[in-house]
Amino acid sequence: MSDKSADVLLITRDPQLREQVSRHRPAAAGLQCVLPDEFHVEQPPQARQCWVDLDYTSRPLRPSAGRRVVYFYSSARHPTGALPPGLFIRKPCTGAVLEVLWAGVTLCTQPAEGGPTDQPPERRTDLPVWLLEFQELSLSELCGRLVARLPARLGYADVSLYLHEPQPRVLSLAESNHTRQIDLAVRMDDYRDHLMVAVARAGRVLVTDEVEQAYRAHGVRRPQHADRYRDGACVSAPLMSDGELQGVLNFSRRAPTAETADHLPWQETLAFLARSLQHARVYERVRTEARVDSLTGLFNHRWLTETLKKEIHRVRRFGSPLSLILIDLDGLKAVNDRAGHPAGDAVLQHVARKVVSALRQIDSAARMGGDEFVVVLPTADLPGAQQVAQRILTAIRTDAALFRGAPLPITASLGVAQWEPDWEADHLLEAADQVMYTAKRQGSNCLACRATDAAYPELSASPTT
Questions:
Q1: H/E stretch holding 275
Q2: Is the pLDDT of residue 241 over 70?
Q3: Burial level of 332, CB count in 10 A (0-12/13-18/19+)?
């Protein structure tokens, strides 16, 4: 093993990790890679930092005191409490994480003793090491951390995070710490009415203490709630990764903290956060594929359970309504018996398309299994949900599915319920299920709504024919 001094000593047998660390190494940084068996505690090589891969060590390594230690691991089986203090990074780690790790290395080329001193030391602008807090593949966990931890880091009190949905061109609210209700979704075409949209379309971060001037500069109409920016401070930060908008972070109201946004390298910081968000969204899409019904393309029961928990948490926080429609097809078994299961599958696919066509952009639908579907309606009260249910009912009634050129008419029974305080997800589902059976008792091919003043679980039906 060479005695040459290095900025980073990497101890690993993992060729992939070694290649990643080397690929992201700045040109001015020194890297030395050794195998665990080659590392000697008694005579450790001179390096400013020691990076240890715990997956490939058969014995505890104890780097010398005073040097920063970074641990890489892929499982929680390692006894971290027995190790010297350090920074723990879960594998596989992204390029963005390695860039931050290298940015934390002090890259200062000192002249040799007696050598020339007219060349200034070469330095790299450090990114804050706390950015590593946001290395998280769970999208919901990452969004929660961004909202919970970033305001204090950057010197602001209020924050909201919107995710960009490119297909409908919408910014949808993911997390916020606002105590007032804010927009749940904003169309990207509304750049004259929303400063956030104008900034997102421009792709450049806005940091200002004069929000009124920002409205005028971006050609945005002054909103009615503009007086809520009491000190005029505002940050609107598009999160761009690989040329694509991932989301927007918005901060307001200055708050005294040790670290403020004034001296933050915004471009590099936002690039890291954007990449973290991009990786989490890709991972979420992979997870979502396991939450999609393969026959209809709608979400499945697992997705529904998770989504209802999130939506109920949101309505409890902001006070907006939430309604549910439960749809049960009338006579699908008869179709299967008469024309076979492929015909029944054709009916299910046809109904799924009709359900989706009747929904708003923020609504979603899931197949519970068999012949049951559930529609989740954020921000919809009972009258609004009843209108959606009527559209679905009409669409199913008036347009039959086709199988091998033959029409397969079918009807449905729908139950509509609105969430009430103290309800959990299963209460809302059960309420919609009970009024759906009320509709079936009324003769099917109709819908019934749960009266908002009915005491749970007693239900009042109002069938629509």
A1: helix 266-289
A2: yes
A3: buried
| CA atoms 345, 351, 354, 359: torsion sign | negative
Are 200 and 229 in the same domain? Answer: yes
Residue 81 falls inside a structural domain: yes
Determine the 3-state secondary structure of 141 from DSSP.
helix
Residue 169 identity (one-letter amino acid): R
CATH of the domain at 271: 3.30.450.40
Inter-residue contact 31 to 8 (CB < 8 Å): yes
Q: What is the pLDDT of residues 200-229, one digit of tens each?
A: 999 999 999 898 899 999 999 887 765 667
Nearest to 17 by CA among 1, 33, 41, 36: 33
Query: Structure pTM?
Result: 0.51
CATH of the domain at 421: 3.30.70.270
For the stretch 225-251, what's the b/e string if a residue is b when 16 or more beta carbons lie within 10 angstroms of its beta carbon? eeeebeebbbbbbbbbbeeebbbbbbb
SS3 assignment for 365-417: EEEEECCEEEEEEECCCHHHHHHHHHHHHHHHHHCCEEECCEEECCEEEEEEE
Phi/psi of residue 332, each to 5°?
Answer: -65, -35
d(CA 109, CA 37): 30
Separation between Cα atoms, residue 248 and residue 233, nearest integer Å: 17
Q: What is the chain's length?
A: 465
Active site residue ranges: 371
The domain total for the chain is 3
14 φ, ψ (degrees, to nearest 5): -80, 110
Quick one: tokens of 310?
């999130």
Give the residue from 361, 355, 364, 419 showing the smallest Cα distance to 390.
355
Same structural domain for residues 392 and 443? yes
Q: What is the pLDDT of residues 111-152, one digit of tens each?
A: 333 333 333 333 344 567 788 888 787 889 999 999 999 998
Residue 142 lies in a domain: yes
